[in-house]
């Protein structure tokens, strides 16, 4: 599993920001080491792949576990079957588990992953990376985590921004459409009209992650649905030129 550049987006307002606070079901995020069945599939740290799928063989001590590497997919894996011992506390810390004696359990994924990672039975760093990797491999750049939209730069232009989608994301419920930044710009626009207060959309990410292009996509969408027309496009160009991202 390789690391990938990401852009994280979310929208909020002064009055309705609490609507975006989603409680996490901690019971689904971790499996206590003492209760983890032998033979369970888990994620363990790996120097080249970041996280690697493995199967628990035995509990070596109160804090250590022996695992066997397992091939993740149909491709040949030269490390398949190799055994190694790990400290559970180190794994839990790296995976962002809620318990220091928790092992990050593997989810069962479909080919396209899941559209909203809050629906994963086990939500931790390796699960997030695996889901994004699956979707990136199918040229699906956007994935939700609750009200947050994570974008993975495909480094190619995809036909996902045509004007037929503008009103769809404005008028249809979000869960009926694929994850998209149009959903965030539509939500900000609707909340501005309903609540009569300013809205903010925060776009963050490392260099090369696609922040500038994402801002252009959402601003063009906002200009269109607000009736800005050609004047709106001119304003967008002026804003982007005067505020380098």
From TrEMBL:
Keywords: Actin-binding, ATP-binding, Motor protein, Myosin, Nucleotide-binding. It comes from the Eukaryota. The keyword Nucleotide-binding applies. Gene3D superfamilies: Kinesin motor domain. GO terms for biological process: actin filament organization. One of its GO terms (cellular component) is cytoplasm. ATP binds at residues 205-212. One of its GO terms (molecular function) is microfilament motor activity. Residues 112-245 form the Myosin motor domain. InterPro entries: Kinesin_motor_dom_sf, Myosin_head_motor_dom-like, P-loop_NTPase. The keyword ATP-binding applies. Belongs to the TRAFAC class myosin-kinesin ATPase superfamily. Myosin family. This is Myosin motor domain-containing protein. It comes from Aphanomyces invadans. The lineage of its organism: Eukaryota, Sar, Stramenopiles, Oomycota, Saprolegniomycetes.
């Amino acid at each position: 599993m390789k690391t990938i550049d990401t852009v994280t987006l979310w929208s909020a307002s002064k009055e309705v920001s609490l609507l975006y606070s989603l409680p996490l079901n901690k019971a689904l995020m971790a499996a206590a080491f003492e209760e983890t069945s032998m033979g369970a599939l888990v994620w363990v740290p790996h120097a080249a792949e970041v996280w690697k799928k493995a199967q628990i063989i035995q509990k070596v001590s109160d804090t250590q576990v022996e695992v066997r590497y397992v091939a993740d997919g149909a491709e040949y894996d030269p490390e398949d079957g190799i055994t190694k011992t790990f400290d559970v506390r180190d794994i839990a810390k790296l995976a962002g588990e809620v318990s220091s004696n928790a092992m990050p359990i593997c989810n069962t994924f479909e080919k396209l992953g899941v559209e909203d990672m809050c629906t994963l039975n086990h939500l931790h760093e390796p699960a997030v990376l695996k889901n994004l990797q699956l979707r990136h491999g199918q040229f699906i750049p956007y994935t939700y985590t609750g009200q947050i939209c994570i974008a993975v730069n495909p480094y190619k232009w995809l036909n996902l921004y045509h004007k037929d989608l503008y009103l769809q994301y404005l008028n249809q419920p979000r869960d009926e459409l694929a994850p998209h930044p149009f959903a965030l710009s539509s939500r900000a626009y609707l909340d501005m009209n309903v609540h009569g207060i300013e809205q903010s959309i925060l776009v963050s990410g490392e260099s090369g992650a696609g922040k500038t292009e994402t801002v252009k996509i959402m601003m063009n969408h906002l200009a269109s649905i607000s009736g800005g027309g050609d004047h709106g496009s001119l304003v967008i160009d002026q804003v982007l030129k005067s505020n380098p991202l």
